[in-house]
């Protein structure tokens, strides 16, 4: 069974937004073992929507039509799809009640068009929308399955994950079980080489996805019972962590390193603080991006200039003069001093060169990170590529500090 | 003349990467006034590449085929396009010399396939690649123009901007002159309503693009001499700034509000500092994202907990007790105290509710920003929608503070 993804939206053909839905869906299909060789985007024009569906119908069996399910005049997708299939529209009465209740609660005025968001392809099933008003459609004909999905990425992802994937898994008739491992601080090629070298069983397939702040490795098992699959995945994960556990920080779908660290600190009733130079506040902002950060973080310092490292933080002038501002001694002093100053259990110090210019003869990407744990102080140096650019050097520095803290607390 | 954008790449149909080239090119075409209603993506399969070109040929006159120009076996785009058009391939001898010189310089081993990167569609022209080895093709037939472009986004953008756009402008036979205005802090619909209401001349067209941290408004004039166009744009900009100048922070292609503020501070020899609560360091990290920030920023504080606002920053306990932590008085005290503590010319204080939970009875999105200028202290309140989520509330707060500082310095 081969799939084709049709996106409908003038905002895409005009180049205002990128078609992120197609990437998300294609990735999900690949994980299910469904091949997809065509993606087509047209604007909100009924004739072009019909032409796209007609072409797709001739060459593929599983069609996804995405976007254009809103209540306004330029939302023509569902009617155009129904016309192309030669079917009527039906009303999802439950959703129609829910839409009316939502408008009542918001004291908003309804127009007749709002009912259109409860329509789906007659003869098919409505797909529930966990975060929006428009339902989707799941329609099966003799040789074809046609799925209609909403355009806003948040609604799209929620409907695909919660309403569509279970149906597609049934359609495929074979179970696929997978888990997602998260890593930071190792180049992707090296990480995957080392993982492939220790994978104990060919039934477990590992694929990697580079994200801005991490590398995700997905382990997948096809066509096994749940018990067998779990056993295979457990063994694989164990071998992988023996090989590259130094870079690992969690397993699951919604895992972030900052959240792992905050959760870990919270569980151990520890508070953290930081004194940041090249990162300029990014470490603390990352900690504060986690809801509930106030349980583990009271505040800290940004000490960008040398004189502020001395005056506000109290790093001895002679340490900086003798060892240099980009040094283990300065990073450790920053960590220890901010730990004391904020009465924190853990203090972190960042000093280094974000670039583009070099500093004290160190090229951009040279970073020292000091960490004052309750019982000892340590530091390590990063030699990041200057080509990463200023922002990525700062983000990588933050992630590497978080990883070290996470492992230090375990 | 209508365009169709065909992307070739298994990495897109597998969902490994998003098709950012299509968005970039569609946006450029729109600016030139070229309509584009179709985008098609296929994997690296010659038969599907041919089918995509065949379909596009029947419905559009300007075809872009993007990706798959590398030297490896799965790079089939150019040969497939040549087959579909019924033409041969020619060698760009200059590029072939350049490729050989590049390999020699890198002391890398050449294989016969490397010569393929110097091929282009016979009867057309090669398109120079400013940052890579593979040339593109610009081929014109009786009713059709076919353009072949490389896949890596860096090479794609460079070739489109530097080699393709001048040719397309000639093809269009009419000059298009535009400028880009940047705004923050006004809802897009209100901003555009107010701009449309004052646009003095129908020959100036305004279109808006919402970016994560700003709204860009592009003014475009077609078919006028440069002098006329400049005059029209100057008048339009003047009227627009009279109407919505409060939200404006710059004109140009590469403008960021943080950079505008840093440049402005640098010119006036002023230093800035901040004490941040809900933003958790994000304001300072944003300032530090601008190269050369050290000229205007020495450091500052993150005062997340109330006790740190009092102990480290010296905000009087009675201010917080009597006025509340989310208040004008607290924001102004934070700004003034950090200004003094860091010997800065300008101090900024952020206090508010990032969410998801409310604080002191204030819902998520309630933010007070205090700014201590050299000669006065001021503050203002934001009522952002809680639906924006924690990160966007924090980012918006930072942008709104930067905007106020920018206008305060003007």
Automatic annotation (TrEMBL), chains A, B:
This is Putative competence-damage inducible protein. Belongs to the CinA family. SMART domains: MoCF_biosynth. Gene3D superfamilies: 3.30.70.2860, CinA-like, MoaB/Mog-like domain. InterPro entries: CinA, CinA-like_C, CinA_C, CinA_KH, Competence-induced_CinA, MoaB/Mog-like_dom_sf, MoaB/Mog_dom. It holds the Pfam family CinA_KH. Residues 4-171 form the MoaB/Mog domain. It comes from the Bacteria.
């Amino acid at each position: 069974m081969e799939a084709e993804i049709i996106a409908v939206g003038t905002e895409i053909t005009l180049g205002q937004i990128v078609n992120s839905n197609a990437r998300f869906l294609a990735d999900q299909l690949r994980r299910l073992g469904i091949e997809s060789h065509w993606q087509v985007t047209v604007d909100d024009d009924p004739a072009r929507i019909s032409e796209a569906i007609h072409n797709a119908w001739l060459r593929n069996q599983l069609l996804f039509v995405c976007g254009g399910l809103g209540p306004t005049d330029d939302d023509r997708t569902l009617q155009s799809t129904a016309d192309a299939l030669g079917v009527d529209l039906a009303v999802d009465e439950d959703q129609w009640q829910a839409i009316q209740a939502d408008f009542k609660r918001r004291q908003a005025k309804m127009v007749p068009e709002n009912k259109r968001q409860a329509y789906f392809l007659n003869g098919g099933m409505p797909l529930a929308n966990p975060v929006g008003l428009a339902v989707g459609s799941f329609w099966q004909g003799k040789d074809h399955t046609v799925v209609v999905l909403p355009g806003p990425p948040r609604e799209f992802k929620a409907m695909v994950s919660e309403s569509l994937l279970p149906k597609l898994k049934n359609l495929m008739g074979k179970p696929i079980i997978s888990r997602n491992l998260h890593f930071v601080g190792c180049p992707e090629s090296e990480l995957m080489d080392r993982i492939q070298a220790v994978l104990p069983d060919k039934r477990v397939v590992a694929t990697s996805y580079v994200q801005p702040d991490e590398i995700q490795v997905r382990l997948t098992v096809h066509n096994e019972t749940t018990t067998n699959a779990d056993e295979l995945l457990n063994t694989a994960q164990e071998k992988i962590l023996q090989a590259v556990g130094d870079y690992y920080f969690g397993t699951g779908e919604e895992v972030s390193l900052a959240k792992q660290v905050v959760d870990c600190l919270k569980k151990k009733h520890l508070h953290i603080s930081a004194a940041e130079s090249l990162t300029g506040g990014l470490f603390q902002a990352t900690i504060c991006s986690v809801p509930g950060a106030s349980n583990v973080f009271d505040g800290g310092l940004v000490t960008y200039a040398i004189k502020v490292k001395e005056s506000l933080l109290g790093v001895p002038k002679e340490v900086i003069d003798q060892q240099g501002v980009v040094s283990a001694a300065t990073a450790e002093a920053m960590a220890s001093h901010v730990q004391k100053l904020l009465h924190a259990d853990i203090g972190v110090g960042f000093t280094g060169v974000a670039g583009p210019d070099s500093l004290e003869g160190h090229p951009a990407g040279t970073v020292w990170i000091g960490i004052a744990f309750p019982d000892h102080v340590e530091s390590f140096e990063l030699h990041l590529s200057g080509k990463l650019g200023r922002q990525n050097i700062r983000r990588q520095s933050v992630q590497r500090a978080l990883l070290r803290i996470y492992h230090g607390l375990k």
